[in-house]
Write a structure and sequence with these properties.
four-stranded mixed β-sheet; about 220 residues; about 40% helix; alpha/beta; 7 helices; single chain
Length: about 220
C-alpha cells in the first residue's frame, strides 16, 4: 500500500507540512486532533516507551488499542492474508536505519541473526546503487528506541509474519524530513534494488506462521 494515512497526508499539504498523525477528532476534554497510527496497533508492548496518553502529543497512542479506522482496516487485511505474507516492510524517515524486530523491548529476538542477515543483504544492494550510502542495521528497540504499538511489531508478533522491517530513509540529518526533491529518484533506485533482494527471500521462504513465534513467546514470559 503506497499510503496508509490519507487524511494526515492531505493535511500535510494543506495546513501543516510536518503533520504526523491521522486526523481523528479530539477525544473528550481535548481540542487536539489525531492519533499516531504507529503507536495504535493491538500488539504486545502497546503503550511502551516513546508513546503518549496526551492527545496533543505527536506520539499519542489513541483512546484504545486499534481505535483508529486506518489501523483497523490494515490489521484486518494483514490477518486475512498473513499465511501468504513472508515479509512486512514499512518506510519511514529519516536516519538511514534498517530496523528489525522488535520495537517494544531491548532484548534481541530469538531469530535475530536471520533478520539482520537479510537486512544486511538488502543494504548491500542499496550500496551497489550508491556506495556511500550507509545504513545502521539492527533491532529497533536495541539500537533505536522502544516504541510500543507499532505496525512492524504487529506484523511479526500478532500476525506471525517471519520478517518485519522498518526502513528509516535518507538522509542522516542534514536535511532531515525535508529531503530535496532532486534526491528522490536516487533513493527510489536504492530501495528498488533492496526490495528485489527481499522478493527473492519471500519467494524462497516457506509459507505459514513464523517458525520463531512460539520460542519468542516463551522468551517474553521469562522476561515477565
Amino acid at each position: 500500500a503506497p499510503l496508509l494515512n490519507p487524511d494526515g497526508y492531505e493535511y500535510s499539504h494543506t495546513s501543516d507540512r510536518m503533520w504526523r498523525k491521522n486526523r481523528s477528532p479530539p477525544p473528550p476534554g481535548s481540542s487536539c486532533y489525531g492519533t499516531d497510527l504507529n503507536r495504535n496497533w493491538d500488539v504486545i508492548g502497546f503503550g511502551a516507551g516513546a508513546t503518549s496518553s496526551n492527545p496533543c502529543s505527536e506520539t499519542y497512542k489513541g483512546t484504545a488499542r486499534n481505535s483508529e479506522p486506518e489501523t483497523q482496516v490494515i490489521s484486518e487485511t494483514i490477518q486475512k492474508y498473513k499465511s501468504n505474507i513472508r515479509i512486512y516492510l514499512t518506510f519511514h524517515s529519516y536516519g538511514q536505519y534498517w530496523l528489525t524486530s522488535f520495537g517494544y523491548k531491548t532484548e534481541l529476538p530469538v531469530d535475530n541473526e536471520k533478520l539482520v542477515t537479510l537486512g544486511r543483504h538488502a543494504v548491500d544492494a542499496i550500496q551497489c546503487v550508491t556506495p556511500s550510502r550507509s545504513y545502521t542495521i539492527g533491532s529497533a528497540g536495541a539500537i533505536f528506541y522502544i516504541a510500543g504499538g507499532a505496525s512492524d511489531d504487529y506484523a511479526k508478533a500478532a500476525a506471525e509474519i517471519p520478517y518485519s522491517f522498518t526502513v528509516e530513509l535518507p538522509d542522516n540529518g542534514r536535511y532531515g524530513f525535508l529531503l530535496p526533491a532532486n534526491q528522490i529518484k536516487t533513493v527510489g533506485a536504492e530501495l528498488w534494488a533492496a526490495t528485489g533482494v527481499l522478493a527473492k527471500e519471500a519467494a524462497r521462504h516457506p509459507t505459514g506462521a513464523d517458525p520463531a513465534r512460539e520460542e519468542e513467546m516463551r522468551a517474553d514470559i521469562k522476561l515477565g
